[in-house]
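Hi everyone,

Forwarding the result from last night's run.
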Amino acid sequence: MSERELVERFLRSESTLALATTAADGSPRAAALFYLLQEDLRLYWFSSASSEHSRNLERDGAAAVSIFRQTNEWRKIRGVQMRGTAILVKGRAARRAIAGIYTERFHLGRLFEAAITRASLYRFQPDWVRYIDNSRGFGYKFEFSPAVIREDRSGCV
């Protein structure tokens, strides 16, 4: 299995990301959100346009994402970190398609469908990805961008 396939498999197995944005005063902000993984490692989520992270993205689309498996053992720490750009998705067809998949995946039902119609859809496109898996050795990681893949198996962060 390739590094990219390993990252995709991990991202499909999880459901919640921590989104990091920058506030107007330059300070960092983080928000937890359900997400969907689609082609080219793109992540999608719904959120209120009035939420702080949405307002931050409207001003500056630069963002970072962290997705990890919950654990109490350092040897089981595993996750993905990404940097990239998040944008508001305006196309109705794309919005409808993502809303259907999103509602089904998270078993949201009719009540949440009404909330989605009022929410904005965002897409995150990573330009840098890091995969961490301490079960392979403390600090095991590999990184890649669209053109380059690097791996660190030294056992050190």
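The longest strand covers residues 120-133.

Cheers,
N.
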